[in-house]
Amino acid sequence: MTTTTDGIHHITAFVNDVQETVDFYAGVLGLRLVKKTINFDAPEIYHLYFGNETGEPGTIITFFPQENARQGILGGGQVGVTVYAIPPGSLFFWRDRLKKYEVKSMDTVRFGEDYVRFTDPSGLLIDLVERDEGMGNTWSFGGISQKYAIKGFGGALLFSRASSKTALVLENVLGLERIAEEDGLIRYKSHGDRGNVIDLNVENMESGLGGAGTVHHIAWRVQDDDEQLLLHNLLDAIGFQPTPIVNRQYFKAVYFREGGGILFEIATDPPGFATDEPEESLGEKLMLPDWYESERSVIESLLPPFEIRSLE
């Protein structure tokens, strides 16, 4: 039995300094901070969500910033490269913008597409690629007009310790279609129009080490609770030992580690980020789940302050 996903729901990563991270993703890349909350399992650490204007699935990158965190090592069992889609004709703008902010970049090509590659301040690898599909971003910040604004995810490059096992999950569980293979990579595509192009290494890779500058997990979209439960039961039946369904306030989540070592999540599209604050003020206030609200003053005293600021 095969289910299908529209593609990436969100990607979550470990980073270092919170202000440095906010300056980069909001100030340099022009993404919107759509949710300022905490790691529900470690409330002394922020959980920050960046995306398009309303934080739609397929646009969200999330971070656990922790100063002086152990530096991770990129390798097998991880998302190797996070790929963002930008409007056609905007690579020239982004090359200039990265140079302006002294972000070193390089050009690369995969499957006939031109990419600009760079790293964030913690070392996360990022690619920008021009794509026609997918709606534009209506959010404009830091001197980036909607004409050039990042649309959301283009996809990801997965680094697997057991490529054939990862391929089986992508194809036979998530329903991605294998569409090409070249230069040691397999390309998959989902039927969605964001976060829908996934590349996978053919040769197995040595294990990486989690820490700052690495991705913690990649989440795949499902439309609702029923579809998530169906997929949970399938994963359980074929031996992946998925976690129970967890309420993350803005979506429900199920986690499992696929055979190549990458932590996968299945996340529901609803309810979204406007469930506890208005769309016009997303990300402005620290939002806590009900069970932490009585500890707000203590939690706020533990979290380092930061601000969203234009770097222009």
Automatic annotation (TrEMBL):
Domain of life, per UniProt, equals Bacteria
> Can you tell me where the transmembrane regions are?
none
Q: Where does the UniProt annotation place the signal sequence?
A: none
Gene3D superfamilies, alphabetically? 2,3-Dihydroxybiphenyl 1,2-Dioxygenase, domain 1
The record's listing under Pfam families reads: Glyoxalase
Q: Where is the VOC domain?
A: 7-131, 152-269
Stored CDD domains? PcpA_C_like (cd08347)
Q: What is this protein called?
A: Glyoxalase family protein
